[in-house]
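Memo to structure team: turn this sequence into structure tokens by end of day. - J.P.
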Amino acid sequence: MAVATLPYQEKIEYPDSDGKPIAESEIHMLQLLALVYVLRNFFRDAQDVYVGGNMLMYYVEGEPSKVVAPDVFVVKGVGKHLRRTFKLWEDGKAPDCIIELTSKSTRYQDLANKRGLYETLGVQEYFLFDPQREYLNPPLRGYRLVNGVYELFSGAVLASDVLGLELRDENGELRLYDPLRHVYLLTPPETTERLEETQERLEEIEKRAARAEAENEKLRAELERLRREQNK
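Reply from structure team:
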């Protein structure tokens, strides 16, 4: 009796790179890296919030052609571990918030293809920012999912219910503002500057403490001298 054999199934590959540059321009790249940095720092204590940037996101299992690469995305309710790609069927959900740094060359993809896809996937908030002001007016635009359909809102300041932050257009730079603490989230250069300022203050405090200790030592010596004279 012949033994039936299962047909050979080739392993499906999900590449972690599409061979394209990380961003449209240096301005876009620096803005992308800054946003990923500040969001990861903001959610650093939340073990169930993942922040990704310029990562391939596969949204149909078994079909690696069904892929998109959001510039910046935030997913709540998933593990914080490192990933090479983001697969919706593994984590069980789509991102809750996506930010695209758009340009004139990507306008149709960002406004049509990606917007429609993110709406279908159930991405709660989708933000577009045009740092070089090539076509969006105003350059900051947002979409919020209402009953399964995106509703548009725009302006210089947009509130994100998902992030608990405000997105602000500050002279061509997209900044994230914490309305509870009334502060902007610090970018890498600002974090470095703040650390340097803190270090300088600590060094000054140490110098003052050393001077005070030296002065106290002089006073103790003088007091001891006076006591000896008094006891003669």
